[in-house]
Write a structure and sequence with these properties.
This protein has 149 residues and is mainly alpha-helical. It has five helices and two strands.
Amino acid sequence: MEDDEESFSPYAPYKPLVRKLVGGTLLTMQIGLLVSELAVPAVVVWRLTSSTGNHVGFDPLWVSVALAALLAIVSAIRIAVLHRWGNMFIAATVATVLSLSLVGYVNSCHFLVGYESWLQRRMPAPNPSCCFVLRFSRACQLPRHEDKP
């Protein structure tokens, strides 16, 4: 009889409510981070199609990595609280992989590199071998120096 009295908590009736509120808050954070993670490749594609420059004031790769890390932390906390994976975790994983792969590829081709990274790389021109994949980019549509007489 003593074990039942010791294990009783005055907060026991509130545990499902707290779990539901925390789960809802984490879901809201997860959705916000997911939208932000998907906005980075959208901005990258918009910038590639609208500008001929290959460097920007911020580094989209590091922004995408930071958002992916925050999304992973929030997803892990949500899984720990709710004790289930959920569809949002799968959507977040797919969006993060797609975002990081696109932004990483664009960065490796010297398109949309952060200004400081661009200076450290000795101000390279966009890689012309990437123009096959990124042919919609305005930088790929410029005449190349070797084409001039």
